[in-house]
Design brief:
The complex is a heterotrimer of chains A (236), B (267) and C (234).
Chain A lengths: L5 E10 L2 E11 L4 E5 L6 H9 L6 E6 L3 H6 L1 E4 L10 H11 L4 H14 L15 H13 L5 E5 L7 H16 L3 E5 L3 H7 L2 E6 L2 E7 H6 L4 H8 L5
Parallel strand pairs in A: 3-7, 3-8, 5-6, 6-7
Antiparallel strand pairs in A: 1-2, 1-4, 8-9
Helix pairs in contact in A: 3-4, 3-5, 4-5
Chain B lengths: L1 H13 L8 E7 H6 L1 H13 L2 E7 L1 H9 L5 E4 L2 H9 L7 E13 L12 H11 L3 E3 L5 H12 L9 E3 L4 H11 L2 E5 H6 L6 E5 L6 E8 L10 H11 L2 H8 L2 E2 L2 E2 L2 E2 L5
Parallel strand pairs in B: 1-2, 1-3, 5-6, 5-7
Antiparallel strand pairs in B: 3-9, 4-7, 4-8, 4-9, 4-12, 10-11
Chain C lengths: L1 H15 L3 H34 L5 H11 L4 H12 L14 H37 L4 H11 L1 H16 L3 H7 L9 H10 L3 H30 L4
Helix pairs in contact in C: 1-10, 2-5, 2-6, 2-7, 3-5, 4-5, 4-8, 5-6, 5-7, 5-8, 7-10, 9-10
Chain lengths: 236, 267, 234
């Protein structure tokens, strides 16, 4: 990581007078997988949503430096609970293409190919509500990947999945990371974080407790909260 | 997509066009339409003159109002005072009397008040009032009701008491009430002839000229409403006062009884 | 009770023999109310969706007015439309009074608030589901509305059918602006009012049964067509 691409300066989000996140100042590099970690209520989801532009900042700013602007234009988000459209799996995956004016037949063709890539091997004519939990998550991944994002956010992508589905999702993430896609994701699963992360952002109570390369973070966490969290204690 | 087919089909239905013939509109009162005479006259009018007359069947007040607004080409009603006021306001060209039907008194078959023996309508009412025999009144401010009130006034009686029942309803409902109570009632002849629930009632008094109900034809004034089809209205009037109309009107029978009497005068 | 049985028998006879007058007034009922439902849907569905996804100061007021308009008596709508389209009124020159066109206009006014209000409810729930996804995918306002209308189409069809139901069963407005002219503007409901006034209860009831049958047929037809499209689920 030579230079920072996404720079947060004093970012703060308040809702109903309560501070959810912030103030947070940090810099994210141009490549790799950044893992946002922290106990429940630390503000992981809110931070990811703020980066993606889904939340209005109460104060501070997010700057997209250098070729960060290219990232900014081409980003996608996989929500913790997949948004299930009232459509078939195929049309759900094709939907982002349709929004960008791709013809229905071509969009479906590309959606089928994308489903294949994420290993979604079901009858794609099925309504998404009829898919299993893991299939729904893969559908959401395919829908996020179909526009070939340069920057991909994932909010606990394997929170409710069994081991097999979790492994498949991680394989996909490793593959697209290798393909050059920048990934920022959150997880509860310390094992998953160890397996995937290049660097870690550790939040506690809405504030940045610690940030650093994965190896350093897991071997020698600096903050007392991260130490407690990694040990398995309940962090207050 | 089936969904789109449905929308397209429905949209086509909306914009389907309507046939255009030589048509005119005439507002008439409910009693005329209910008599059934219109169903005899309209096809003959179309055959003889080529005019399709579209009837707007409404109350007397609304019939005149539609003419005053220019929404019909002619009016056929039976309310002389109101018609003359309407003409005086410049709404029509003239008033042409066409025909009349009449009102009758109906009562219990044994006629306890002896109304049948009277030689005038007012006499029959006086007999009913004297006997305190039950009498049902429309009580709804309709043309028939107004006629009944004017007769009571002419008879010098202010009807009130247990025996006088104002029901505030239409002719059919009022006749049903009279039948149920075995009471006297004033009705137009057509409604009585068509009434299916006569019970013990029968016709007890008829024929006094004050009971005649004059129908008049009034073309809407083209000076006030230039778009009205005055030429068609005049053509229709010419037909309505013709011998052909006279034969059809005088010959119209309901349950074997004559309902209307043609009385248009040649000009 | 006897009247009802006679009415049913008469209705059956009219339908089986395809009575010419009955076919004519039934077709006009269908044309006017289906037409009004289509136009009201074209206005009311996007309006409902727009109200569901936009926040603006007068939004609550607009929704309250919409809900209040649902209870508007048809006879009042009829009077207003009559005054507008009367030869002496501002739109009199169009010469539309006592035509099926003005009957459609009156019914559009009656139906649109219902369609808009019901679709607003349905779209609001769908929007809550879709909100994050549509914002994330940078769908513009028009695309959001189109997506919500398309994915909510089954609930919205119910809104349109509710509008059609109110239209086809409505007599107050259509009587005033249409005039119940034989062979021109007579529809099932005005014919029923006419037959009732004549005391011909069996005929009035027969027409009433035809009206009920018509409403059920339209509902079933639409539901059937949309189910075959969807395949396994309803």
């Amino acid at each position: 990581m030579v230079s920072g691409m996404i720079v947060l300066e004093g970012v703060e989000l308040r809702r109903g007078g309560r501070v959810i996140v912030g103030p947070v100042s940090l810099t994210l590099g141009a490549e790799g997988i950044t893992m946002v970690m922290g106990p429940n209520g630390a503000g992981k989801t809110t931070l990811l949503r703020a980066l993606h532009g889904l939340e209005r900042l109460s104060s501070g700013q997010i700057r997209w430096a250098g070729n960060g602007n290219a990232l900014r234009e081409r980003q996608a988000f996989v929500f913790q609970t997949p948004v299930l459209m009232r459509r078939s799996a195929l049309d759900s995956i094709a939907y982002p293409l349709r929004l960008r004016g791709v013809k229905r037949a071509e969009a479906r063709e590309r959606a089928a190919a994308c489903a294949e890539q994420v290993g979604l091997r079901v009858n794609l004519k099925k309504e998404v509500s009829d898919l299993s939990g893991g299939e729904k998550q893969k559908m959401a991944m395919a829908r996020a990947l179909i526009l070939e994002p340069a920057l991909l956010f994932l909010d606990e992508p394997s929170a409710n999945l069994d081991g097999r589905s979790t492994r498949e999702i991680e394989e996909i993430l490793n593959r697209i990371r290798a393909g050059g896609t920048r990934i920022v994701m959150s997880t509860h699963d310390i094992g998953q974080a160890r397996r995937l992360a290049d660097d870690v952002v550790f939040l506690h109570d809405g504030k940045l407790a610690e940030q650093g390369p994965s190896a350093a973070f897991f071997d020698a966490p600096q903050s007392s909260q991260a130490q407690a969290y990694l040990k398995g204690d309940i962090v207050l | 997509m089936k969904f789109r087919t449905i929308i397209a089909a429905a949209a086509t239905a909306v914009f389907a066009t309507m046939a255009q013939a030589e048509e005119m509109k005439m507002s008439v009162t409910t009693s005329f339409a209910n008599s059934g005479l219109a169903e005899v006259l309209l096809p003959e009018i179309e055959k003889d003159t080529g005019i399709t007359v579209q009837l707007l069947v409404v109350g007397t007040g609304q019939a005149l109002k539609l003419g005053a607004e220019g929404d019909v080409d002619a009016v056929l009603v039976h309310a002389k005072a109101a018609e003359e006021k309407w003409l005086a306001e410049g709404n029509g060209t003239h008033r042409r009397e066409i025909m009349y039907n009449d009102f009758i008194f109906v009562g219990p078959s044994d006629d306890p008040a002896g109304a049948a023996k009277a030689d005038k309508a007012t006499g029959a009412l006086q007999a009913i009032a004297a006997a305190q025999a039950p009498f049902v009144s429309r009580g709804d401010d309709s043309g028939t009701h107004k006629m009944e009130l004017s007769l009571w006034k002419a008879a010098g009686i202010e009807p009130q008491g247990d025996w006088y029942r104002a029901v505030g309803q239409g002719m059919g409902a009022a006749l049903n009430t009279a039948s149920g109570m075995n009471a006297y009632i004033m009705s137009d002849r057509a409604s009585w002839l068509k009434f299916a629930n006569k019970g013990d009632l029968k016709l007890v008094f008829e024929g006094d000229p004050v009971l005649f109900n004059q129908y008049a034809f009034l073309p809407v004034n083209p000076a006030k409403h230039p778009h009205v089809k005055n030429d068609l209205a005049n053509k229709l009037e010419a037909w309505l006062v013709s011998d052909r109309a006279k034969a059809l009107i005088d010959g119209y029978m309901l349950n074997g009884e004559k309902l209307f009497t043609f009385n248009a005068k040649a000009e | 009770m006897n009247d009802i049985l006679q009415g049913m028998a008469r209705a059956a006879r009219l339908v089986v023999t395809l009575d010419a007058d009955l076919v004519e007034i039934t077709a006009l009922s269908l044309q006017v109310s289906l037409g009004a439902a289509v136009i009201a849907s074209a206005i009311g569905l996007p309006l409902g969706a727009w109200l569901a996804i936009n926040r603006f100061p007068a939004r609550r007021v607009v929704i309250a007015v919409l809900n209040a308009l649902m209870g508007l008596p048809p006879v009042v709508v009829g009077l207003i439309v009559y005054v507008l389209f009367s030869r002496s009124g501002p739109l009199g020159a169009l010469g539309l009074l006592f035509t099926p066109t003005v009957m459609v206009i009156a019914q559009v006014i009656i139906i649109t608030p219902i369609v808009a209000s019901v679709s607003h409810q349905a779209i609001r729930e769908l929007w809550a589901d879709y909100h994050d996804l549509l914002i994330s995918l940078k769908a513009n306002r028009l695309q959001r509305i189109v997506t919500l209308l398309w994915d909510g189409r089954r609930a919205l069809m119910t809104a349109s059918l509710a509008g059609f139901g109110r239209g086809v069963g409505e007599v107050g407005a259509i009587m005033i602006v249409g005039g119940n002219i034989d062979h021109a503007t007579r529809v099932l409901t005005t014919a029923i009012a006419l037959e009732t006034g004549k005391g011909a209860f069996d005929m009035a009831l027969a027409l009433g049964f035809v009206l009920i049958g018509l409403a059920i047929s339209v509902n079933l037809a639409l539901h059937f067509l949309s189910r075959t499209e969807r395949g396994s689920r309803w």
